[in-house]
């Protein structure tokens, strides 16, 4: 008999990057190795050769997917084309600016046996020099952009803004973008690892000009952040699209939240508390601290959130 699926905290993968820093210690209290410049932590991931492990369960997310995908994802929720978990969740510390880049859509990524990358961000911390690039300025033509996309001459063509903590930013496939400097954020995305680097601020790194220009779209409306909207059942919607949903929940007293018969990913961005569920007394509630991520399988109908003082969660799931 396979072990039953139950809500589980996930162990993270810490990724050093030259543009990273130590802000995840300050913003979320994450334990980082000394003297390592951390650019990303992967909180939910199921990639070839590596998969998040459930704390206390011992199994990986890939093993959960093999064990009972319907119980995990929910009926009608599709895995990736390779049968993997459909989403990837990260924290990013952009102490320095990341490259100017673009991601493909599903059709273009299929040639590389991967998914496209529709992604979105929630800003957790923004310093004095914080910047996000989202898109190309209005009036710039494909020909003008292509001529200088890999050089410093592209910089005036990029649409940039100064973010603030709490901002929600959508980055669909085909949108040119860059994070940083001085930004810490939560990222949710399709389970993809394809990035086409166009320009890297003079760093001597490879660019992917041909693929990047082919992926780039010029028909996006000018937009910086997404305005939250009230959500039925509590909290506010940040994103609802064809690949994922994301709600922000500010919990000040005990709250029951339905999974709506599909998996949910609860990530703590502020405060402490517990997450419980109906287990017939077999399981204790999970303690929640800043930076923790809990994967709730679809076979669990409701969870019970109990704050200790206050608790802010990002509550992600598949499209409705």
Structural features, described:
With 320 residues, the protein is mainly beta. It is 11% helix and 38% strand. It is built from six helices and 22 strands. It has helices spanning 23-28, 61-67, 69-73, 106-109, 142-148, 209-215, and strands at residues 8-9, 13-21, 38-44, 46-47, 50-51, 87-94, 100-102, 119-126, 132-136, 158-161, 168-171, 177-179, 183-190, 196-199, 229-230, 236-240, 245-251, 255-258, 264-276, 286-288, 293-296, 302-317. The strands form five sheets. Strands 1, 15, 16, 17, 18, 19, 20, 21 and 22 form a nine-stranded antiparallel β-sheet that branches. A six-stranded antiparallel β-sheet has the order 2-3-6-13-8-11. Strand 15 and strand 16 (236-240) form a beta hairpin. The radius of gyration is 20 Å and the shape is globular. The model has no long low-confidence stretch (mean pLDDT 96).
Name a few traits of the molecule:
11% helix, mainly beta, globular, 320 residues, 6-stranded antiparallel beta sheet
Sheet having the most strands: 9 strands, antiparallel
How many beta-strand runs?
22
Count of helical regions: 6
Question: Can you give the helix content as a percent range?
Answer: 10-25%
Taken from the alpha-carbon principal axes, the silhouette is globular
Question: TL;DR?
Answer:
The chain is mainly beta and 320 residues long. 11% of the residues lie in helices and 38% in strands.
